[in-house]
């Protein structure tokens, strides 16, 4: 502990030096290291104060990056800062379960993933500037460039020999530019609230998630993976429950195995192993909330390798495999639950989201749209190989008819539009 305290003393001496030099990036790194050191000393409240200051600076620096790619890159590079903050809040929740630390951890999870995701959605949309005064947009971009240049110039000045008058003048110029920039943004918000809402996304709080994204028949399951431990939040319109899960390496190894087995599902051995691995992963991810699932619609916000796992295919408890026509040797399942359930999709509507905040943005976007006159449901099973048994095993006449319906197969070349739905329809 003495080494940690000594390191903390050194960091405390270095912090004002970085601040005086205007080096915000090094200031963030120093605050982050201080927070980790405070945590090792079991000073959780002090650690929280330091990391919150650091994240505040991270957010302010993010807004100064000139493009979406740089903003996303910068925020992504600080992902470990958010993971640390989430873990810290959940540790505080264990000590003070009635203080709302778990809700703050959920909001931190949304902050970590939602801003870059929302900004990616925003800048990928067409015509988001429609209706905005072109002169205002031009002025906004010009001021942003001037701010970036002026900040860089100020940092160069402060890092070398300078007088107090020079530093004060540089600070004054920067403040004046910032004031002009904020005034232009205020005009844009007034004249085009839709554009402002899209270009300045705000991750939702717990209360906002409950009000805007959930109803009585919907359950939000949000996962975040961490180096030492992971977490799951189960949220309804009136409650939040949090659970500690295994560390990232353990979960991602299980998820990777399931994903690889799914890609080999045509092989009998792979199907058998998939049933076992799927049951283990399901117990790992859903076992804590099995009694809350009921028949609810599930909004699933995953993280890391979990984004590659189709939750709909994972087995759910509460319904025996025989009830949905599955043929699984239950005696081979070595999981806490002796019976393997049906796929989650058999009992639940599954909606996968990059973040809960994204759902609110999408709903606002859809609110003003006119519904289409007709709906089309497409059921498809893609053909990826020329030796697909659904074609090869048919009698000549049937095969010829199949080729007529799928003329691109007759040339031996596979096109992206060549889809075989026979098997899927036959099983209905």
How is this structure best described in words?
It is a single chain. The protein is an alpha/beta fold and 428 residues long. Among the domains are: 60 residues; 160 residues, no CATH class; 38 residues, no CATH class. A five-stranded mixed beta sheet has the order 3-2-1-4-7. Strand 1 and strand 2 form a beta hairpin. The radius of gyration is 27 Å and the shape is globular.
Indicate the proportion of strand residues.
5-15%
Helicity level, as a percent range? 55-70%
Q: Enumerate the spans where pLDDT stays under 50 for 5 or more consecutive residues.
A: 318-322, 325-340, 397-428
Order of SSEs, N→C?
Answer: HHHHHHHHHHEEEHHHEEEEHHHH
> How is the largest sheet built, in terms of strand order?
3-2-1-4-7
Number of strands: 7
Number of helices: 17
How far apart, in Å, are the first and last alpha carbons? 66 Å
Which word captures the global form? globular
Helix/strand-derived class?
Answer: alpha/beta
Radius of gyration: 27 Å
Largest sheet: 5 strands, mixed
Residue-averaged pLDDT? 78
Features:
single chain, 428 residues, alpha/beta, five-stranded mixed beta sheet, two-stranded antiparallel ribbon, 57% helix, disordered C terminus
Short structural description:
By secondary structure, this protein is of the alpha/beta class.
List the helices and strands and how they pair.
Layout: H1 2-20, H2 24-40, H3 44-64, H4 68-77, H5 79-95, H6 101-124, H7 134-159, H8 164-191, H9 193-199, H10 206-212, E1 218-224, E2 230-236, E3 239-245, H11 248-263, H12 268-286, H13 290-293, E4 297-301, E5 315-320, E6 341-343, E7 350-353, H14 356-367, H15 389-392, H16 396-405, H17 422-426
Parallel strand pairs: 1-4, 4-7
Antiparallel strand pairs: 1-2, 2-3, 5-6
Helix pairs in contact: 1-2, 2-3, 3-4, 3-5, 4-6, 5-6, 6-14, 7-8, 8-9, 11-12
């Amino acid at each position: 502990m003495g080494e940690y305290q000594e390191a903390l003393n050194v960091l405390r001496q270095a912090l004002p030096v970085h601040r005086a030099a205007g080096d915000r990036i090094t200031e963030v790194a120093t605050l982050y290291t201080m927070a980790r050191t405070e945590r090792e000393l079991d000073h959780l409240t002090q650690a929280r104060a330091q990391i919150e200051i650091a994240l505040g600076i991270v957010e302010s620096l993010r807004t100064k990056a000139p493009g979406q790619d740089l903003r996303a890159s910068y925020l992504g590079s600080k992902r470990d800062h958010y993971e640390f903050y989430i873990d810290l809040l959940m540790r505080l929740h264990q000590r003070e379960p009635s203080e709302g630390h778990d809700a703050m951890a959920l909001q931190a999870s949304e902050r970590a993933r939602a801003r870059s995701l929302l900004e990616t959605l925003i800048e990928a949309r067409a015509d988001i500037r429609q209706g905005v005064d072109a002169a205002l947009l031009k002025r906004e971009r010009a001021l942003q460039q001037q701010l970036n240049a002026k900040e860089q110039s100020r940092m160069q000045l402060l890092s070398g020999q300078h007088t107090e008058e020079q530093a004060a003048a540089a600070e004054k110029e920067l403040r004046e530019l910032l004031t002009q920039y904020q005034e232009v943004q205020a005009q844009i918000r007034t004249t085009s609230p839709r554009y402002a809402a899209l270009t300045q996304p705000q991750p939702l709080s717990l209360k906002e998630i409950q009000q805007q994204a959930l109803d009585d028949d919907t359950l939000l399951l949000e996962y975040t993976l961490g180096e030492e431990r992971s977490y799951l939040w189960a949220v309804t319109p009136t409650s939040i429950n949090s659970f500690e899960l295994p560390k990232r390496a353990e979960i991602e190894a299980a998820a990777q195995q399931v994903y690889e087995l799914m890609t080999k599902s045509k092989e009998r051995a792979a199907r058998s192993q998939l049933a076992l691995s799927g049951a283990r992963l399901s117990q790992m991810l859903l076992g804590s909330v099995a009694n809350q699932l009921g028949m609810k619609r599930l909004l699933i916000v995953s993280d890391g390798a979990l984004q590659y796992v189709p939750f709909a295919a994972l087995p759910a408890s509460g319904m025996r495999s025989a009830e949905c026509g599955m043929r699984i040797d239950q005696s081979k399942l070595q999981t806490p639950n002796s019976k393997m359930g049906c796929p989650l999709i058999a009992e639940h509507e599954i909606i996968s989201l990059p973040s809960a905040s994204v759902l609110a943005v999408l709903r606002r976007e859809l609110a003003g749209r006119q519904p289409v006159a007709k709906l089309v449901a497409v059921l498809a099973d893609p053909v990826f190989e020329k030796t697909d048994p659904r074609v090869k095993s048919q009698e000549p006449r049937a095969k010829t008819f199949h080729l007529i319906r799928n003329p691109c197969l007759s040339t031996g070349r596979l096109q992206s539009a060549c889809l075989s739905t026979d098997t899927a329809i036959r099983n209905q």
